[in-house]
């Protein structure tokens, strides 16, 4: 029975339903804790205490022997009276078997080195080897950097250290100086040595030089005509700005109009209403860490410490802030928009209050409820106050009436329970009275 119910979702609170019926988060609930909470009057729904005996042995009390219930439970993945089974979201047993993840293939390695690294290293080595051989051969065979090729001319240094003279080598081997002559190192290039690509590049360069020379001359001679025509062309090309529209809707920016995601979203909005987004406000006290000491009702003399965020004066201040935020308005298309016009209302149209996850909802957002107290019959000591109501609601957030004497509901104004593990933060384990923030 527990396994069939443990995964059932409660869409209004985005929580598992067992969180309401167990008095604690669903992941911390067990079959024993579930039945114990359901049989306790602390949940606000059970009229008297019910003690569940879990076991498969007979239990004898006085002259009565109780036999363990032995009924077959219909699993959540089984049909009951020809009804459909629970979905995979609410019943893990209804989910299809997920095939195991195939193991990752063994990484490719050569000489204990990744194949990609090894291949890149070989390519880099071959490229460098080819490049250096090419450079060496080019300098030796083409540029004659080692003077191993015969040359018609050789250059010698003058007496004053410059190279202004070139000596011509005659047939008899004697050198004759020609002052003022220029050095000739490279052989002459013939027309046959020029490639087709070089000819094309030279022709294109000449063509561009001629065109831009003519265009520059025309612009210099007719400046007004050029500026008028340029402005007219620029204005004609910019005419589309008049029909330009800026898309700011993130839905239109991230999904195509006919995409599957967009189609399913439009279907959901038209049948169930648009989805909502959560806005979060975190409140804490950074300059006051004084604990709130609460005295238990008489005849007990014990006290319990709560953090400073549960101080009554602080609760009133935060409630004023919360009410001010709820009353914010905005003008849109000549209409006044309030929070209730755009917020999530799970019980609308019967209840149009917004879903606000705050512990102030335990007091229905009312200053009077925070100040409410119950005195003893003599009017001498306080039997219950806002802390007692808070302690009860933290244990049973779905209760419609507390049992401490204040007779106030723990449900929010919107009619839903306020779970402490959602509305509080900074607590240790399940000790919600140690919370440091809302």
Features:
single chain, 438 residues, alpha+beta, 4 domains, 3-stranded antiparallel sheet, two-stranded antiparallel sheet, 12 helices, 15 strands, transmembrane helix
Q: How would you describe the overall organization of this protein?
A:
- The radius of gyration is 45 Å and the shape is elongated.
- Strand 1 and strand 2 form a beta hairpin.
- The protein has 4 domains: 2-94, no CATH class; 113-179, no CATH class; 247-276, no CATH class; 292-434, no CATH class.
- The protein has 438 residues and is an alpha+beta fold.
- It has helices spanning 2-5, 18-22, 31-38, 115-142, 196-221, 223-237, 250-254, 260-272, 312-326, 367-371, 386-395, 420-423; strands at 9-10, 15-16, 59-61, 64-66, 109-110, 113-114, 153-155, 165-169, 175-179, 292-295, 303-306, 329-332, 335-338, 374-375, 382-384.
- Helices cover 32% and strands 11% of the residues.
- The chain has a 3-stranded antiparallel beta sheet, with no helix packed on it.
What's a concise summary of this model?
This protein is an alpha+beta fold. Helices cover 32% and strands 11% of the residues.
């Amino acid at each position: 029975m527990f396994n069939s119910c443990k995964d059932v979702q409660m869409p209004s609170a985005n929580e598992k339903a067992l969180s309401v019926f167990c008095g604690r988060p669903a992941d911390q609930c067990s079959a024993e804790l579930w039945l114990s909470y359901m049989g306790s009057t602390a949940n606000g729904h059970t009229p008297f205490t019910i003690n569940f005996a879990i076991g498969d042995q007979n239990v004898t009390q006085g002259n009565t022997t109780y036999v363990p219930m032995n009924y077959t439970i219909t699993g959540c993945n089984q049909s009951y009276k020809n009804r459909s089974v629970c979905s995979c979201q609410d019943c893990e047993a209804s989910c299809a078997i997920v095939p195991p993840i195939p193991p990752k293939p063994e990484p490719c390695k050569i000489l204990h080195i990744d194949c990609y690294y090894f291949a890149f290293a070989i390519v880099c080595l071959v490229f460098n080897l080819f490049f250096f051989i090419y450079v060496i051969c080019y300098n030796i065979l083409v540029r004659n950097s080692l003077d191993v090729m015969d040359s018609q001319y050789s250059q010698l240094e003058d007496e004053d250290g410059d190279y202004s003279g070139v000596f011509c080598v005659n047939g008899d081997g004697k050198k004759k100086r020609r002052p003022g002559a220029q050095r000739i190192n490279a052989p002459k290039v013939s027309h046959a040595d020029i490639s087709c690509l070089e000819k094309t590049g030279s022709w294109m360069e000449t063509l561009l030089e001629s065109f831009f020379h003519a265009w520059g001359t025309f612009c210099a001679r007719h400046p007004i005509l050029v500026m008028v025509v340029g402005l007219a062309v620029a204005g004609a090309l910019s005419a589309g700005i008049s029909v330009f529209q800026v898309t700011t809707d993130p839905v239109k920016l991230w999904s195509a109009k006919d995409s599957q995601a967009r189609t399913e979203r439009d279907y959901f909005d038209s049948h169930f209403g648009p989805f909502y987004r959560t806005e979060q406000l975190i409140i804490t006290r950074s300059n006051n860490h004084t604990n709130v000491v609460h005295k238990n009702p008489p005849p007990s003399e014990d006290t319990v410490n709560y953090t400073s965020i549960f101080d009554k004066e602080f609760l009133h201040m935060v409630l004023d802030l919360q009410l001010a935020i709820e009353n914010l308005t905005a003008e849109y298309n000549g209409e006044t928009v309030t929070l209730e016009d755009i917020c999530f209302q799970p019980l609308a149209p019967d209840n149009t209050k917004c879903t606000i996850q705050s512990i102030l909802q335990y007091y229905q957002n009312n200053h009077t409820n925070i100040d409410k107290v119950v005195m003893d019959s003599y009017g001498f000591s306080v039997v219950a106050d806002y802390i007692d109501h808070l302690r009860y609601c933290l244990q049973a957030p779905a209760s419609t009436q507390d049992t401490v004497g204040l007779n106030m509901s723990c449900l929010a104004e919107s009619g839903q329970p306020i779970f402490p593990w959602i509305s509080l933060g900074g607590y240790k384990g399940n000790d919600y009275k140690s919370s440091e923030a809302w």
